[in-house]
Amino acid sequence: MLRVERISEAGFASMSNDWGACLAASDSNPLFMSWPWLYSWWETWSQLLGMELMLLGAFDENNELVGIGPFSRRVLVTAGGVRVTRLYILGNAWRLAPTVRTEYCGIIACRGYEDAVGDVLLSALEQLGWDELICTDVPPEQVEHLERAGAGFDGRGYRVIQRAADVGGRVDTRGRFTDWLSGLGKNTRLKAYNRRTYLQKQGNLSFSDHNAGSDGDFFELLNAFHHQRWGKPAFEREALRFHRLLLQRLHLCGGEPALSVVRYNGRCISVLYDVVVRECRFNLQAGYNESFDAKVSLGYLHLGYAIEEAFSAEKICSYDLLAGTGKKQFYKAHFHGEAVHFATFQVVRGPLLKLLYSIQSASPPFIARAFIRRVGL
Question: Is the pTM of this model over 0.90?
């Protein structure tokens, strides 16, 4: 028998060890569901967004933490005057404000406890006051887990509305780099690897770890490249604070930063923001000099170096490119990794909201759009 306890903000702040042990014994994502990521997110955005912590812990008969339900809650009033109490999986603020993107979302359950943890956490959620639950960037295995737990959402009379689907890519790095490279398309292989020869014939090309002493602040470099390319920084003030906190705490989930630079004739032309946690290297962000050379795609080139480094590292099994598209195309598919799918959906249980969403879905598109604008959902 498991018991569920609601954990306070003070408890959240002090539970990094217990959280880490529970996460390590689960199949949940070791970065995005880690205490360093989620607590840093909470510390950065909770007060700004007016969020209330709804963190649930599942404990066994020995008082060991075997499951975690990371949720937050916010009450809002729509433009149409509808009062909505919304639950979120911790790490995202869907339609509230932009924050960093938290992927692989879901509940955490130690292996062997998955069904029991799902049952007690969903039962505990029923006792909380809320009208809708927002589940963002949930991988298929977590969707199956949630649907299997208890009677699932449909069995409890909730309405599930699919909001978005996204895809990312994850490269298996347990084989040989040369085999992976030979399997790429000709154009991708040229951009990710062969252009090294072109540049090396003309100057000094190097790939190395970022050195704050000689390179300056990493995030300032990243933001400068992004501003040049996109007209805005990669990380605004709050996101910058989040990532600095994350890197300070990353060791608490067994992780380490992998900040790298590509230099040409001694000048930094590209930066890559990766972190390594357990057996995976995650690509969080990149920035480069877009006007460097029309024949060279620095984004591909730098990723080629980083993926090669991941292949050469004995303990790294995968390089995760995560979700999201590029400026012009879904370039991640070109790296011949495993496709990783994510779903964002809304679980509605409030009677008024279920009625409003039913009216919307039954209406012709132009009426549905006008209705949603009017109601403000």
Answer: yes
